[in-house]
Structures are given as C-alpha cells and as structure tokens.
Amino acid sequence: MYMITFSGLTKTFKSTAAVNDFTLEIKDGEIMGLLGPNGAGKTTLILTMATVYQPTRGSVIVDGYDVTTRPTEIRSLIGIAFQDPRFDRLLSVLDVLEWHAKITGVPSGERVQRLESVMRRLGLWEVRRQRTWSLSGGMKKKVEDAKIFIQCPRIAVFDEPTAFLDVPSRLLVWDMIKELQEEGRTVILATNMMDEAERLSERVAIMNLGGLVALGSPSDLKQKVKGSEVLEIKPTDPGHVDLERLKRIHGVSKGVISNDILKLFLSRGRERIPRVIDELRQQGVEIESLFLKEATLEDVFLKYTGSNLS
Amino acid sequence: MTRGFYELILREIRVLVKAPWVVCSRGLFFLIQIFVFAVLMDRVVDAPNFDFFAYYSIGTILVTISSIAFLIGHDVYEEAETGLLDYLLTLPFSRRVYILGRCVGGAFRSMIYVTPMFGLVAVIRGFTGAVELLGALALLFVLAFGITGLSITVAVTIRNQNRFDITLALLELFMIRFSTALYPPVFMPSAVATVSVFSPVTLTSDAVRAVLQGGEASFLGVGGLIAFVIVFFAASTAFYFKRIEGGYFH
To answer: How far is A262 from chain B (nearest CA, A)?
Structure first.
C-alpha cells in the first residue's frame, strides 16, 4: 500500500521547472530519505505534496486523496518541520507548540501531556516561557522539530531535522523520528547529511535538477556503484588529469574530480591501482595521496549528480 | 473549519497581546490626540454651532482603527518573506477559511485596540445607549474587516518591499485624510470634499456619528461600506491564491 504517489509531477515557476517529471511511490510506514543539493527541487516537491503549490503537470496522491481536488484532507494528514524554523518570533516556545497542537487537532485530553513530554525530552521545558526570537539556532530547530513530535501526523516531513544541533541532540532527534515510524507514521526525511539518511532511511531518493536520479535502499544504492569501490586520489595538478583516458582502464566505470580530489569508481580496486598510477604518470600527474575505500552514499550521490552534497 | 477559523483569530490576538509596547504607544498617541491636540484645535476652530472636540474625538477612533487594520498587510508581507506563510498554508484548513480567519482576526485585533478608547470617548461625550454603542462598534468592525482585506490585497500584489510600504502608506493617508473622520466636508477644499465621499472611512465615520447621536445611518453609506468589504475580501482571496500558486513567495 502506497501512502504517497508522485506521478510525472512537474512544477514550473514561469519558465523554470523546479520539479520535472518526478515519479515516486512512498510506502505507508516507511522512512524515505530525500537527498539532493540546494536547488534540486526537494522543497518544491514537499510543498506541492503539502498542497501549498498546485502541480503544473502530473499528480500527487496522498492516502488516496489528490492534492488538487482534496487539499484540505491532505493537510490534516501532514506535518512539516521546515529547514528554517517557521513560527511567530514574538510568541513563547509554549505558545508556538500549544497553538500548533491545537490547530492540528491534537485531542485536548492528550495535549498537555504530549507537550510536556516532548518539551522535556528535547530540553525545551526550561525555556518554554522564553520568546522564540531569543533562542539559539539549535533551540529554534528543536522547537520546529517538536511541533511534529507533538502533532504525530500520519505523514511527518522533516527538512534537515538536525541542522544546528549538537551530537547528543542529533542522536535524540533520530531516536524520536524512529519512534514515529515505529508508531506507524510515514516519514519523509530531506537531508544533506549522508549519515542521517543512511542511518534512518529504508529507501533513499536522490534528486537533481528537479528529477529523480536514483532510488533504493542505502545498501542497494551503494551496490549500484559498479564494483562498490572508490579510489580517491589527490593529484598535485588536478587540471592536467585526463578522465577519458582513465575511464578506458578495464574495471573503471566512472571518474569525477570534485574539490581537487580525483574519484574513480571501480571494481577490484586493489588490482587496478598500479595501472591507474602508470596512467597518471604518463599524463604527467604526480600523486600526493591515494586511498581505496568501499563506496558510501556520498559516492553514490556524486556518481549520479556529479557534485558533492556539501 | 471551526477549529481552524477560531485558532487563526486567536493567533492574531495573541500576537497583539505579546506586543504590549505597540498597544501602549498607540494608546498614548490616542490620549495625546484627544486631550492635547483636540482641545487645542477646539480653541482655534471658531465656527458657530460646531463643537470640534466632539467631532474630533469620534474621528480619532476611526483613524486609529483604520491604522491598526492596515498593519495586517505588513504582517502578511513579512510572513511571506520569512517563509512563515508556507507553514500556515500547510495547516489543516481550507484557503477560504484561512483568508477569512486572517481578516476577521485582523478586525478583532483592531477592535481590541480601540474598544477602550471608544469607551473613554463614550464616557466623555455621554453616550449611554447600549444599542447605539453596539451599533457603532459593529460599524467599526465592518470597516476594520474591509481595510484588513484591502491591506492583504496590497501585500500580495506588490512584490517590492519599498513600493509596498509606500503604497500602503499612501492608501492609508488618502483614505483617512480624504475623509470626514477628522473634519467635516464644509471645511474641506471642494476637490477633497468630492473625493472624500468615496472613502470607506467617510462612510463609517458618518454612519457612526449618526448612530451615536441617536439618528439612523444612511442606507447608501452602510451599503457602500459593505460593498467595500465584499470587494476587498474577494480581491484578497483571489490574489492570495494566484500569488501562492504562481510561486511568487519563492
């Protein structure tokens, strides 16, 4: 059973397609990681699903409701923790969370208990009377996340949920997101942090230029990097590297230079290293360092988008 | 529908209560207008059978409620700029409930501002009839509702912050200064008097004075006020939807 279905979704603003022919099905109760660089279309995708925008073409069906014909029903299913905290600066932490709980229909009998429990877990209880404008970036982020933990919506969307958080807080938020899923909620996790996506997501969708470029579990995606190995080389002069000649070496499937580091995606890397070194020497390129490792999600991202997330 | 509508109104009021310095400064401004400016002007204006203080005291309420109702446009503009609007639009109520909630909330907020001032003027002027007082408050509410709609319309149709600020300030200036709120038409230059007939502040000002003095508000005046409300509520709704769907806010 799919909770959310994007079918050929396109959203254009004037002549720019922020989301382009995007198709994806998200299962009920799964955590779907959404990875993409800035401008990939993640936010537009989320806001279209949340009925803020109308699709230009294609459709989005949420729990059987079409975003264009039944938006109000969809809004009652969704809760979004935005990347940048969104609340009235003049109000206190308690005001913000209490209002969110009321307007999203948290039953009055449970409201007080849920508010206190989530605020205490996230360390917001002591500052609950403080106005939100006076909070640090991390505390504001916690307030934004807390809205969704209190609401417990059928579909919880987190956009960079642990940005600005310290390590203990990050681990706590990850636990709380996992708990949401264990309670049967569907979670969409838009993130730039590979470890977050890898740790929490059952499947990851990689977006680039408004489209879906790869989809699968983190381990499946890593397997898709041919041979699952990456040879990272720091050349003295990256500008002189001829990638085309390197790619002709048997077993090398792709080569990318990113942040002055040459990355070769290859199989049986240990056997290929001497040939790669010879080739670089022939090109007149000296090697400062060389490192062979198993492919990570970051490498998967690099392979499909040609750029680093950071 | 009911919960969303009710909570949107409460939100407007809560934001107001959390900014007491704004309420206090407006209240102080009102007191100075009444007890300093109006008293001084009353001595300056020498017209037979005309009590300027009495006229001005009611007019100041009209001016204050209009200014407060215009403020919501700034809120809406800022919400769009900061992204708070995206959050509000994901909440579980329809767009129509959202706009209606903002307009009614904005009108209630304006009423909370002016009701104490209105009470003070009622005491000073000796207005005691409950029906008349309620009738006047209802007219003020309708004006505030209409101006809120107008203000939201301007906020969602003008993209540039400076142009938006200037347009809203000019609209406020024309609607209030080219009206009968602070001075009767006989004292106005003829061009201003002609234009003032069309100002919703004039329509409300004349109707409120008529009601408080035990008379009847003109049917045409109240009809014009209601038409103003309907036009700008519809315009704010239409432009709001159009801008959001077109992605103007991003």
So the answer is: 36
